[in-house]
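Researcher: Can you fold this with glutamine in place?
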Amino acid sequence: MSSDRIKIVWIYPDLLSTYGDQGNTIVLERRAALRGIPTETVSLRSDEHVPADGDIYLLGGGEDRPQILAAQRLRGDGGLARAVQSGAVVFAVCAGYQLLGHEFGGEEGQPVPGLGLLDIRSGRGEQRAVGEIVGDVAGELNVPRITGFENHQGVTQIGPNARPFAKVLHGVGNGDGNGFEGAYSGRVLGTYMHGPALVRNPGLADLLLRWAVGRDIPPLDDSWAGRLREERLQAVMS
Ligand code: GLN
């Protein structure tokens, strides 16, 4: 028996999974296995109930209409909110990030209610933000510089009960006028980074695993991921 067993819940791949976001699931499974931590992954379609006993919940990006449908179903279901109350880890990308907040902009810019699990508010910006994004992560999270790909119309303001995940060095991120990217509160973290985010940022994957098991985990040889990171960082920062 291992108290470290991690249950990963991949929420609504039928609605929320763009730009390879499912790769985030694979990275968590693999990096946990290399530390001898067993995982179980549940891939949950949008007509299924969200179990409240997961350790890490993953949400990906999505087009405007699937995003609205996902928000409605998750609100109606209530399982994700119960899991957050019990201290589960949530990692959400783009549409998934926006729908964790109080509201986001629908396909005509209309305000759509979110889940209110993260103190952020999103609307539609004037221009689509498309391209590489690089940022320096909030010091207390102990995660190296992030690299990813963004493609969104939404702009996101962070409220007093959440903190900026990173400061943008290249790209747009939240587009809030403060140069911030993503937000987090407790163990709920959202970002505009696809890429997939955890493939390009193994340090971020390890933060989620540390949160899930509640202890430090040994480092891995990340030279291959390091090459990918270097290549991407050099492409945009030089
Ligand atoms: N539909 C949202 C937006 O355009 C999210 C897009 C995405 O997930 N890539 O802002």
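Model: Folded with glutamine in place. Residues 18, 61-64, 67, 94-95, 151-154 surround glutamine (CB under 6 Å).
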